[in-house]
Amino acid sequence: MNIDFPFRKQGLNITGVFQYMMENGYNPSFEYTHIQFECDGNTSVVECEDGFVTVRIFFSIEADEYDLFIEASNLMMTQTYSVKSVVLEDRENIVFSCEFFCDNLKDFKSFFPRAVECIVDGLNVHKSEMRKLLTARKNDIKAIPDTTDDFVTGITRKLLS
């Protein structure tokens, strides 16, 4: 008989996490190394290994918006502090992640909803900032004078030095 039995913590395993998510309406699907679920219209993943839990949300941007993504991500990371962003190799697919230490299901149940909330908050901050930056970019493009009418009037503009 093991004398420390009442004090031993139940280890966190992916099966327990999956059961918790099923019971709480996340509608997950079980993969070999992770649990996949839908969050805010995006694919999300939970991974558990050696007392470390990672919650990730995947989404994409247009390739020509990459520079704006970096700016919006920096703002998002300074406002959330717990969510990090990563651009995948194709520069169009993005991952936001939140990690926490957790070695039992009881702690997971208290941390997981907050981790999902942080990621969704970060995603909303990011989307809002991207909208602002895209609007500013469009306004900057509109501010550039249109030179296509030079051919119609026959008047060309000269650069002043």
Written account of the structure:
- With 161 residues, the protein is α+β, with helices and mostly antiparallel strands.
- The protein has one domain: 2-Layer Sandwich (Yope Regulator, Chain: A).
- The protein has four helices and six strands.
- It has a six-stranded antiparallel sheet, with helices on one face.
- A hairpin with a 2-residue loop joins β3 and β4.
- The chain is elongated, with a radius of gyration of 24 Å.
Features:
161 residues, alpha+beta, Yope Regulator, Chain: A, 6-stranded antiparallel sheet, 4 helices, 6 strands, 23% strand, elongated
**What share of the residues does DSSP label as strand, in percent?**
15-25%
CATH-defined architecture: 2-Layer Sandwich
CATH-derived topology = Yope Regulator, Chain: A
- How much helix is in the residues? 40-55%
The major beta sheet can be summarized as: 6 strands, antiparallel
Q: Quick one: overall form?
A: elongated
Note the gap between the termini.
91 Å
Series of secondary-structure elements, N-terminal to C-terminal: HEEEEHEEHH
CATH class placement: Alpha Beta
- Secondary-structure content class: alpha+beta
Strand order of the largest sheet: 1-2-3-4-6-5
How many DSSP-defined strands? 6
Rg computed from alpha carbons, rounded to a whole number of angstroms: 24 Å
Question: How much is the average pLDDT?
Answer: 81
Number of domains: 1
Poorly predicted tracts of residues = 1-9
State the helix count. 4
List the helices and strands and how they pair.
Elements: H1 14-23, E1 29-30, E2 35-39, E3 42-49, E4 52-60, H2 66-80, E5 84-87, E6 93-101, H3 105-143, H4 150-153
Antiparallel strand pairs: 1-2, 2-3, 3-4, 4-6, 5-6
Helix pairs in contact: 2-3
